[in-house]
Amino acid sequence: MSTAGNGAHPPNVTMRDVAKVAGVSIATVSHVINDKPGARIGEDARRRVQDAVASLGYRPNALAKTLSQGTSRFIGLVADQIATTPFAGQIIHGAQDEAWKHGFVLLVANTDGNVDVENDAIAMMLEHQVRGILYSSWYHREIAVPAALLQTDSVLVDCFAPDSGLPAVVPDEVQGGRTATDELIAAGHRRIAFVNTTTPSPARSGRLAGYRAALTAAGIDLDDALVLPASPEQEGGYRATPQIIASGATAVFCHNDRVAMGVYDGLREQGLRIPEDMAVIGFDNQDVIAAHLRPALSTVALPHYEMGAAGVRVLLGLDEPGVANPTPVRCPPVLRASI
């Protein structure tokens, strides 16, 4: 039956539509519609929301009607690219398992870094009144927090924003760098090179700090000539190999597994054997690389699964949040045959 001319409103009107017409945030619309106790909303804003609801014919969807006390059994996860990367998707896996353990279901939106998609995803999750949102990037870095995240409980995973007031869960880069270096020291090496990335990042500074701390603790003099800059991919490691050999090092800690793969190529080209002539350890545990090099690469794993799970625990108040300083998650060694 046609609805033309009978005053019916178009279907699928959302809180986002109401917020746009009323000139307020989605959170304000949610507070007004759900009559949230304690919400500080001016009478003018409340009236505009009510007028927009009436004019647009907004009706809460069936899911929202079943929600108790304004929250659901959903947790949102908004990611830039981790669902499409070979190992960082473990963040989703860890968050999903932890959420399910506590009676929640994970709603996942992979935005591919598109700001409009990201805003729409967060708006949809707010409309469904998720318990909170995990926001994750595919590599550890400082971010600018989307404003909409501040409208609900949110936790940053594998990223951080110092002035946002949001808790963050990140890999312990310093501990990881120290662990990698400690493994080489434990194998008897005293002259250890470190091929570090040229890209400024928490990984660059943290892993270097860990490397230096391990050497100092072992009574080994620091030698800046052993810290070699390289672009963080296979070609960077390959190009750094002549400097590694010239340094007199017997072992090398590589910023990541791709760099280590390039070092393998460079050492093999010079007729050097791993680990007999040069021990090598990487970082990331990117399985498609590390487990399939010959010999298989010893490395330090980025704890993606554990970060996802920890993010959910922080969101649910089961773990103490790290606001002033992000909560570090240990990076474990994965020992194979290259040391």
UniProtKB/TrEMBL annotation:
Cite the CDD domains for this sequence. HTH_LacI, PBP1_sucrose_transcription_regulator
Which keywords label this protein?
A: DNA-binding, Repressor, Transcription, Transcription regulation
Q: Matching Pfam families, A to Z?
A: LacI, Peripla_BP_1
PROSITE patterns recorded: HTH_LACI_1 (PS00356), HTH_LACI_2 (PS50932)
Q: Which InterPro entries match?
A: HTH_LacI, Lambda_DNA-bd_dom_sf, Peripla_BP/Lac1_sug-bd_dom, Peripla_BP_I
Residue ranges occupied by any HTH lacI-type domain in the UniProt entry: 13-69
Which GO terms label this protein's molecular function in UniProt?
DNA-binding transcription factor activity; transcription cis-regulatory region binding
Domain of life, per UniProt, equals Bacteria
What PANTHER family would the database entry show? HTH-TYPE TRANSCRIPTIONAL REPRESSOR PURR-RELATED (PTHR30146:SF148), LACI-RELATED TRANSCRIPTIONAL REPRESSOR (PTHR30146)
Q: What is this protein called?
A: Catabolite control protein A
Q: Which organism is it from?
A: Microbacterium foliorum
Coding gene? ccpA_5
